[in-house]
Predict the structure.
Amino acid sequence: MGMFIILTSILLAVSLLIIWVANSYNQFQVLIIRINEAEANIDAVLRKRFDLLNKSIDVIKANTKTEENVLEQIVKLRSRKLSNFDLDRKLYDGIKEFEKYKEEYPKLKSVEGFMKIDIALNESEAEIVAFRKYYNDIITDYNKLVKSFPTNIIALLFKFKSKLYFDGKDMNDEIVDDFKL
């Protein structure tokens, strides 16, 4: 009878451990799926911004008769592969240049095509801010699982690593680990 209780206890403990591991792993998987979804949304908005800035080059050139390279930063991006973090920074620089042309050439404000691009860029700014917040909220939840005991054990077993926030800042700032196992 005593051996039966010991075997039952061991079986129960192993079963509970397996259930806990599976549950913790699934928590990570749900967050990874949400992170991928958020990245796809950010990617779509960044592509939209890139396309808008690309279209604005011809409109600016046609209406300003400028000899300088218009939105040269954007032209250079056409053939480059960048992460969303880097692309966001480059597009932000392009938008600042776009705004510079808007201020330097008041005539552009009367050009319908230019104003449509300007409105769409402003709308995309609201979208990117919302998607960044959504992404960062998910990353916070994910990083909590990676760092917190006992789910950090699952993170080590399955090689889940902390992820960087999408905050529009210089992504060379690494995450500082407060503690390590």
Remarks:
- Helices lie at 2-64, 72-77, 84-104, 112-147, 151-158.
- Residues 170-181 have pLDDT under 50 and may be disordered.
